[in-house]
Amino acid sequence: MVNPGKRMNILKTLLNLRHGPGAAILPPEISRLHMDFALRWNDGHMGPRKFWKTCLPRLKFWNPAVPMIINRSSNNAGPATLSIYFRQAAAAAAGPTTPAGSAPKVNFITPLAQQPHSSTANECPAPPPEEGERVVTIEMKHQHSDAILQDFLQKTGATVLQPSPDELNEMRQAEDLKDRAAIDRSIMKKYIDDKRAEERLLARAREEAEAIRLANQ
C-alpha cells in the first residue's frame, strides 16, 4: 500500500497539472496549435520556453486530442511564434457544443496515434492553413510567459478553469505537507550535522590521546 505522504505527492502533481496557468478548454473551432522557438532560452526565447514548460502541459491535459506541435531549432536569432489554427465557421458548426450553464467539455478531435510529432531539429515548421482553416499568429519573442498566455486566451476565447472547493482544500493540504516536509528535512539535517561534528571531535580526541600515549613511551 502506498504511504500517505507518497499519495499526497502524487495528488499534488496531478492537481498542479489540472490547475494553474494554461488550464483552459479550447473552443471546438481550434484545430491545432504550433509553437516555434529556439532550444536555448537566451535572445528573447525565455518566455516561449516557460510557456511551453508551464502552460502547454495543462492545455494538453484539458485538450488531449488537439495537436500541439513544438518545433525547435538552434537558431536563437530566429523568430518565436505560436500559431493557432481555426476551423472556418461552417466547419466549426459541426463540432461539439456546450449547452448554456453546463461545464465545458474536453475537445476530442484527432486520435492521439494520428497526431504529428514535434522536432528539436527544425524539422516541423508551421504548416500553411489547410482548406477550411485560418491561422492566427502570436509573436512570442522577448515576451513574458504570462503575457503570451493572456494574448493566447484572448485570441482563442478559451474557457479558463478554476479549481473546485474540494480541490482547493486538497491543494492546501499538499502545501501544508510540503511545509512540514521542509521542517522535517531541516531537523534531520541538523541532527546529522551535529552527529558528524561529534564524531569528528571524538576522532580528534582519540588521535590526540594516541599521540600523547606514543610521546610518553
From TrEMBL:
Residues 188-215 form a coiled coil. The keyword Ribosomal protein applies. InterPro entries: Ribosomal_mL43/mS25/NADH_DH, Ribosomal_mS25/mL61, Thioredoxin-like_sf. It comes from the Eukaryota. Residues 40-159 form the Ribosomal protein/NADH dehydrogenase domain. Its main location: mitochondrion. This is Ribosomal protein/NADH dehydrogenase domain-containing protein. Keywords: Coiled coil, Mitochondrion, Ribonucleoprotein, Ribosomal protein. It is found in: Mitochondrion. The keyword NAD does not apply.
